[in-house]
Amino acid sequence: MTEQNITQQDLNKNWVEEELNEMPASEESVFEKLPALKLEENKIVEVTVDLSNKFQSYHTTDMKGQPVTKAIIPILHDGEKKNWWLNKKNPIYRQILEKGKGKDTLIIKVIQTGNQANTKYAIVE
């Protein structure tokens, strides 16, 4: 190997080390690890949304590679604490926030229609 090759390798190594040093220790969102809420199509489910703290967010990409931000919503469902991973662009996310203004908890009934890419959620009054 020549002196020039070693120097280039050292530069590459330094770049990688610098990048690692600048990254946070963990890329994960900090949230309580709980089972995910799984809804069944056309079944009404009652959940209690915990609004006492700001929802954590998770950043990912969809099937088309587009960026997606999901809210990690702590809920109580069938007596068990769970997380509801909900795309912040989903209309029900705004509805939850509007109904929950000024409250520590919000009890709602939710129905899921469709599945996978066609999944829709609605609050049942």
Protein model, in words:
- This protein has 125 residues and is an alpha+beta fold.
- The chain has one domain: OB fold (Dihydrolipoamide Acetyltransferase, E2P) (Beta Barrel), CATH 2.40.50.
- The protein has 2 helices and 6 strands; from the N terminus they run H-E-E-E-E-H-E-E.
- Strands 1, 2, 3, 4, 5 and 6 form a 6-stranded antiparallel β-sheet that branches.
- The mean pLDDT is 83.
What's the structural domain tally? Answer: 1
The Rg value, from CA coordinates, equals: 21 Å
Q: Helical amount among residues, as a percent range?
A: 10-25%
Q: Biggest β-sheet, characterized? A: 6 strands, antiparallel
CATH classification, class level? Mainly Beta
Mean pLDDT: 83
CATH architecture verdict: Beta Barrel
- The 3D shape can be described as globular
What is the CATH topology? Answer: OB fold (Dihydrolipoamide Acetyltransferase, E2P)
Model regions low in confidence, pLDDT < 50 over at least 5 residues: none
Task: State the secondary-structure class.
Answer: alpha+beta
SS element count, helices: 2
The total beta strand count reads 6
Please report which band the strand proportion falls in: under 5%, 5-15%, 15-25%, 25-35%, 35-45% or over 45%.
35-45%
Distance between the termini: 73 Å
Q: What is the ordering of alpha helices and beta strands?
A: HEEEEHEE
Task: Summarize the structure in short.
This protein has one domain: OB fold (Dihydrolipoamide Acetyltransferase, E2P). 24% of the residues lie in helices and 37% in strands. The chain has helices at 3-22, 91-100; strands at 44-50, 56-61, 67-77, 80-87, 105-113, 120-124.
